[in-house]
Amino acid sequence: MSAEFATASDTTLPLHVLSEDALEKWRAEQDASVQAWVEASGFTGGLGQALVVPGAEGKPVVALAGYGNDAARRRGRFHLAGAAARLPKGDYKIESGLPEDQSATEALGWLLAGYRFERYRDQIPMAAKLVAPEGIDAAHIAAVAQGEMLTRDLINTPASDMGPPDLEAAARKLAEQHGAKIDVTTGDALLENNLPMIHTVGRAADRAPRLIDMRWGDAGPKLTLVGKGVCFDTGGLNLKPGASMGLMKKDMGGAAAVLGLAHMIMATGLAVQLRVLIPAVENSVSGNAFRPGDILTSRKGLTVEINNTDAEGRLVLADALALADEDAPDQIISMATLTGAARVAVGPDLAPYYSDESAFVSALETAANSAADPVWRMPFHDAYEALIEPGIADLDNAPKGGFAGSITAALFLRRFVTESKYAHFDIYGWQPSDAPARPKGGAGQGTRALLAALPKLLDL
């Protein structure tokens, strides 16, 4: 799906963005017919309101978008997107009322409001198009929107059409688009290449497990993104109940997120040596499925006792992280729909992340605010290390007791990165209900914040 701004023309309508406290002053400056129309329409400047004002011949001559008040805006983001979705067909150019420091964010929100998932059914497109506000980097914003839309499309696609081979095909298409190199290790070749836990988790499925390895750029700092690509998670022999399985098409949300971020990085020409690693598997049930009580040996040599086959994401990520660490990049970032505990802690709207690097935290927190992409720092709490040590093996994939589930998962992953700076995102990857610029369905989380933070983080 494309994300493009309109080109200004003679038919472009001027759009005034009016907060509730600015409406009266603007209305007083208009002629009597405009004042009467605005009053009769019930337009108050409320957040998300939209109004087109006709001229003497009945044709629209100006449009208004409500911008609410401070309290309403604090409770959400992409405030202009709600009005954009209500405006009739046409091209619009913002003439007044939008704070300059919000132009880029609101322009992005407008583009994202135009997203439609159309693989299985035609959708009614958003009618209103925006001329890029002056002073913004329109190409950059369009690239960000395209990356987010890629992530949404991948997550929204059901596992019947988004298994490991399909995820590989999506990665290959992205690599071809940007001139990146890609290698894929599939099936028993995973064992031959010392990626045993990826093989073990995915071997029960009809569609073979694989590791996708994409590289782009030959100069600059080394950045490696690792995304969990569990294309469907039944829970394995520790089978999930039906209610918990319904959204498991999104368990490859980490892979979708890093592919979306990779598009943003490559499309904007960020001066990095980018590597993307995606362990793509299905956690299925068959006679050769791995079992509770099994002990697996990882690529790194650490042994892992399996106490729950439904804690499979950390297993496939562990091998991929160990491989990433061998290259000693300047920064490794993993993204995964890893634990329900993270959602219980912060809900679906925040992206919890783990980092011990103060520079990473500072850059990300600043960028998250400007990118309207909220994140929340969680602790690598060393005191909980004992919880992931079962005694019979080096590590436990599912500590008993249920305490600190997201933290213990992050600590588990950290054991596989020893040579590089490391940050981990335990994302949800799903918007549970419609919101401005964010329809119900697959969602990118943390990626826009990361893109904005990377130049400072990597000294670019």
UniProtKB/TrEMBL annotation:
Domain of life: Bacteria
InterPro entries reported in the protein's UniProt record: Leucine_aapep/pepB, Macro_dom-like, Peptidase_M17_C, Peptidase_M17_N_1
A GO cellular component entry from the record: cytoplasm
PANTHER family to which the protein is assigned, alphabetical: LEUCINE AMINOPEPTIDASE-RELATED, PEPTIDASE B
Keywords: Aminopeptidase, Hydrolase, Manganese, Protease
Cytosol aminopeptidase domain residues: 308-315
The protein's name: Leucyl aminopeptidase
Species this chain originates from: Sulfitobacter delicatus
